Here is the input.
Amino acid sequence: MNSELIASDTALADLCRALEGSAWIALDTEFLRERTYYARLCLIQVGAPGIVACIDPLTLEQLAPLHALLENPGLRKVLHAARQDLEVFVDLRRAGTRQCRERQDAESDRGIVAAPLFDTQIAAAYLGYDDQIGYAALVTAITGVILDKTHTRTDWSKRPLSAAQHQYAEDDVRYLMPVYEALHERLAAAGRLAWVADDCTRLTDPKLYANDPAEAWRRLRGGAELPAANQQILRALAAFREQTAQARNLPRGWVLRDEVLFELARHAPQTRAELVSIRGLEDGARHSWGDAILDCIEQGRRADPQIIWERQAPPTPEQNALGKRLMELVRSVAQEHELAPAVLATRRDVEKLVRGAEPASVLRGWRAELLGTKLGALLPC
Here is the structure.
């Protein structure tokens, strides 16, 4: 099958039947989310040996054949820097295909988990490439091809697509295929496929993409500056914003910006008249959400005034020195084994170790075999 734009349900069914016998498929997406909470899916690129295609979800009535492929446990999904694409797939069935459709039946609400996964950015780090290497840079490093970046900022919702846009989109999977094959072969030779699979599996956990409003407070930084009672108000406001953004399909900042949440939590107004004095709270937001904001503030006032965000003491000079030695050790071991240092331990992992915590990812499995004894020799008893 040659490259083509899949713009009919019949063509999609034919494509998916052609892909069913593959051991793996390469995937990428183009989407917009500047004006929405959920990404507006505009294009899905698919590749497999002998096949390159772009699926147009804006013209299709349903994507059920693609859903089945994404959920097929015997078909490996190959993506680069997969986190955002996986989030789009999780929301894919929930959103429907014509974007504004609002199906709420049990099947549509379940979401799609594209597993098993092979993330080429993760895989590359296990072979010594930078842990955040971009797709174009990895393609060049492995194939020698320099990709055209002209359409990086394209509005993918506009139709028809030009020939250049179509080519650009196809290239996102056309070259992902040889990159995957090269990485897979080298990882197999190095005995590291299981290492990569472990990290990729964590990305396919649906809980990672749940965005529970009750947990929305975790996105905010700086809550430790507020007294306990005001922290409860901030948590309630964060939950309200998340729930409203999801229900209205609006970016969080279009409901209430972070700095406004903090102003509200800090001053805790009790009447609509007092809301006027809150810096940054626009008239439209005050009129739309005023009563709900006041309810959140009252809810926070009545809550048990427990500390949610804890103030962390700055590291001591001794801890700074230890952290530096640990990072040097991580870099040394990574270089010895031709790994990106962050694959072994991130700076945050090291900071936890310095403070006496034990990040599970560093002190278990193969990482413990490479680092465990050497770390133990440096850490205080």
